[in-house]
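Cont'd.
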Amino acid sequence: MLTSDQRQQFVDDGLLVLPEVLPLAEMVSLRSRMAEIVDAFDPDEHRTVFSTTDRDQRRDQRFLESSEKISFFFEEDAVDDDGALTVPMDQAINKVGHAIHDLDPTFDRFSRQPLFAEIAADIGFVEPLLLQSMYIFKQPRIGGEVVWHTDHPFLWTDPPSVVGFWVALEDATLENGCLWALPGHHKRGPKERMRRVEHRPGEIGTRMEVLDTAPFPTDEGVALEVAAGTVVVLDGLLPHWSAPNTSDRSRHAYTLHLIDGKASYAEDNWLQRSPELPLRGF
Ligand code: FE2
């Protein structure tokens, strides 16, 4: 799939943009499948009365459980203290994750298509495992910023092996909050590490450990304006960011994160799978 120049570029930059390698029809069918999933979601079913004090704990718990579910995440302030949506669903939803690729047949087929397997093999995966999937909505006018970060700290393996495939389901532009990246900066070490911790007996949450306080040189950021059907391949240590969506057009994207089964996966990563839903490859 990839030329030797492209493989070298990924080594040098930690980034590879593959413009419009997926047919538009496939992007449309993925978007309609997600619209069905959203339609079937009943916010009332998930409404739980919880006080402000245990709100963080509930949020943590929902996040941890999403490792083997199709879970809905909402924009800040779109949910009140009783767990009820304060705005219509299409303005409230931020993303869906993190096991769509294993639980929904349409996303399973899409995620395990030969193109992705070939890219993974070309960039050096020995035993690729599909760890995490996210459908990101970046809604018109309310889609929030995703701050500069790298993915490895959240999906830690030794040696680092995580790679993200970011698929533009719609055109991504400066106006609707396209990705930005710092090509070449994947060669620096991780700045943080998220660990699963027990805050109090029986109360599992996460904690972010700071490893390096130097800020990312964000003025060197490069905007990745891409057309629908484009696949962006991101090294797990490549810093990336996306701005809020201030336009009246959505910016849907689907992301898939792979790790190599040859690397050791940290036991205190937030994302853990039970034996009933083991990680699978392509
Ligand atoms: Fe990311």
